[in-house]
Write a structure and sequence with these properties.
- The protein is globular and about 45 Å long.
- Helix 1 packs parallel to helix 6 and helix 6 packs antiparallel against helix 7.
- The protein contains eight helices and 13 strands.
- The two termini are 31 Å apart.
- It has one domain.
Length: 281
């Protein structure tokens, strides 16, 4: 259910054949979790022109709920964002669709949090290409988003090779070219499978106006990532550390993923010197 709360101002996928041109299949199995935070900045490379932005607002997209819900993490994230002074809108379950991602820019979020399956796909055509995908909970249909499917903006994904439940996913091309409005002064922090193993998704968010992306560079396990994400949020919004210090603190506290070895990174390097408050003020 979509919910909005007010802040305290004081304080891996695989695909089916949809054309003879190319077939998408998973190179790295779908990510167990992605959490993404997006926070704006005018201190780094400029993005699209800023439009009207009345208040400071956070959007949380929890694609894993209710199937792999974590109420403790959700509550901790919400409280941290609200005490930082952000209004919080949350989407989960069946609300997480292609259209949800398309409309994220219309909310003009200061912070965007995405907790989701993800993965790196291989697009096979004349030349094999690799692309990072975020999952939705929208069931796949041959007749929906046909043009965007053919353009590799909307992808066919599933969590593992044996999963018969095909869903839509969105690619960096979708973020860069199909999302409405911009994400002015926005930092993207993506904690999840391989979302900074490549920079294509981070660069797509930057093209929308975002100023930074924090993410893991490889597959991650659910329990580890949820715990590390909660620590990262505390460092950024409660302790108000810089992006670099919050990333280092999280790695010192939790280390690399114990099962897959993924580590937490941020992009671009120039963002590391700033706090969230620096970036959104």
């Amino acid at each position: 259910m979509k919910r909005t709360s007010r802040g305290n101002k004081n304080k891996s996928g695989a695909s089916l054949d949809i054309s003879s041109r190319r077939i998408a299949h998973v190179l790295i199995l779908s990510c167990l979790v992605v959490a993404a935070f997006v926070v704006g900045s005018r201190l780094l490379a400029p993005g699209p022109p800023e439009t009207g932005r009345a208040g400071r607002h956070a959007v949380v997209v929890d694609q894993l709920s209710p199937e792999d819900s974590n109420p403790t993490l959700r509550s901790a994230v919400r409280i941290s964002l609200e005490q930082f002074g952000l209004d919080v809108t949350e989407y989960e379950g069946e609300e997480v669709t292609v259209e949800t991602y398309r409309s994220l820019g219309s909310d003009q979020p200061t912070v965007l949090v995405i907790r989701s399956h993800s993965g790196v796909l291989s697009l096979q055509g004349d030349e094999e290409q690799h692309i990072t995908a975020l999952f939705t909970n929208e069931p796949y249909s041959r007749t929906k988003y046909l043009s965007e499917q053919l353009q590799d903006r909307v992808l066919i994904v599933r969590r593992h090779e044996q999963d018969e439940n095909l869903r839509f996913g969105v690619s960096p091309l979708f973020v860069a070219q199909s999302m409405g409005d911009s994400l002015p002064r926005t930092v993207v922090i993506i904690a999840g499978c391989s979302c900074l193993g490549r920079t294509d998704l981070a660069e797509a968010f930057r093209a929308r106006g975002a100023s930074a992306v924090i993410s893991w560079d490889g597959p991650v396990s659910l329990d580890y990532l949820d715990s590390a994400t909660e620590h990262l949020v505390d460092c950024l919004f409660d302790k108000r550390m810089t992006i670099e210090d919050a990333t280092v603190s999280t790695m010192l506290e939790y280390g690399s993923d114990p099962e897959f070895g993924a580590i937490l990174l941020y992009y671009p390097v120039a963002a590391g010197r700033y706090t969230v408050e620096d970036l959104i003020s």
